[in-house]
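Appendix C: a fully annotated inverse folding record. The material below is reproduced so that readers can follow the format used throughout the book. The structure is listed first as C-alpha cells, followed by the designed sequence.
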C-alpha cells in the first residue's frame, strides 16, 4: 500500500510539474476556430488518424425518420467500429480461455511464434488500423504522389476488407514456419557451413548441437490440445448446448494448430540415426 501511494504521488508530482512548465496545444496562438479558413492539409492527431480515415472512406449514408437525420457515415466508423474493436480487445482473454478451457493465471509472456493465432490477430488489427490511418491523410498523399482522392479512397475501401484477413493467414503461416525451424534446430543442431565427404562419395553438412539452455528455451512452452467435446454423454443422451459446444470445439481446434515441439522420445530417436 505504501509503495502504491508513493508511485501515485510521484506521478502526481510529475504531472503537476508538466502542467506548470510545459505547453500542450496552445490554441491561443492559432486564433478563433473558423471552419471556412481551414486548409486542405489539416490533419488529425496521430491517435485519431485511423478514426478520421474510417470516416473519410465511409459512403454517404443517411436515414431520415420522424424528423431526425441519422448519419450512418459518422455513426458506423466513429462509434460502432471502434466499439467493436475495443470491446473485442477487452473480451479476447476471456474468449481464448473459453476456447482452450485454460482458467489458470499466466504471468509470463509467450513468444509470438508460439501463439500463432494471437499474433495473427494482432497483425490483422494493426493492418486494419494502418489502412485507415493512411486514408486519414489521403489529401496529403494525393498531392504528394500526384494521385486522386478517389483512387486512394477506393483503394482504402477495398483493401480494408481484403488485407487484414490476408495478413492473418500470412502471419499464422509464418509463425508455424518459425516453429518448424525451431524444431529442426533442436533435432539437428546448428549449421556449421562445413562439408564432409562420406566414404561412398556423398557430401553432407556437419551440424553442431545447440546448448541445453537454448534447447530448453525452444521447448519450454506449453501446447494446449484441442478440446474434445462429445455431442452425447456416456449414456448416449444428447448433451445440452450442442451448437455452442460445436462452435467451441471448432474454435479450439483452429486455435490448437501448431507444430509439435521436440520431446525426449524425439531426441532419443534422432540419436540412433
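Designed amino acids, in order:
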Amino acid at each position: 500500500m505504501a509503495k502504491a501511494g508513493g508511485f501515485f504521488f510521484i506521478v502526481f508530482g510529475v504531472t503537476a510539474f508538466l502542467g506548470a512548465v510545459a505547453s500542450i496545444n496552445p490554441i491561443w496562438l492559432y486564433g478563433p476556430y473558423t471552419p471556412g479558413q481551414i486548409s486542405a492539409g489539416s490533419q488529425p492527431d496521430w491517435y485519431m488518424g485511423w478514426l478520421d480515415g474510417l470516416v473519410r472512406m465511409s459512403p454517404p449514408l443517411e436515414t431520415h425518420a420522424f424528423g431526425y437525420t441519422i448519419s450512418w457515415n459518422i455513426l458506423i466508423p466513429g462509434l460502432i467500429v471502434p466499439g467493436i474493436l475495443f470491446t473485442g480487445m477487452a473480451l479476447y482473454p476471456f474468449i481464448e480461455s473459453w476456447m482452450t478451457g485454460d482458467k489458470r493465471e499466466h504471468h509470463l509472456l509467450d513468444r509470438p511464434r508460439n501463439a500463432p493465432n494471437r499474433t495473427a490477430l494482432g497483425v490483422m488489427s494493426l493492418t486494419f488500423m494502418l489502412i485507415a490511418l493512411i486514408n486519414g491523410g489521403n489529401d496529403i498523399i494525393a498531392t504528394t504522389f500526384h494521385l486522386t482522392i478517389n483512387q486512394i479512397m477506393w483503394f482504402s475501401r477495398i483493401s480494408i476488407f481484403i488485407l487484414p484477413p490476408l495478413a492473418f493467414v500470412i502471419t499464422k503461416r509464418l509463425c508455424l514456419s518459425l516453429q518448424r525451424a525451431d524444431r529442426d534446430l533442436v533435432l539437428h543442431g546448428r549449421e556449421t557451413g562445413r562439408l564432409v565427404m562420406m566414404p561412398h562419395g556423398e557430401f553432407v553438412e556437419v551440424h553442431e548441437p545447440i546448448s541445453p539452455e537454448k534447447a530448453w528455451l525452444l521447448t519450454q512452452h506449453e501446447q494446449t490440445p484441442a478440446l474434445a467435446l462429445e455431442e452425447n454423454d456416456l449414456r448416449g443422451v444428447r448433451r445440452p448446448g450442442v451448437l455452442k459446444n460445436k462452435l467451441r470445439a471448432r474454435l479450439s481446434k483452429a486455435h490448437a494448430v501448431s507444430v509439435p515441439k521436440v520431446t525426449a522420445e524425439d531426441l532419443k530417436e534422432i540419436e540412433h540415426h
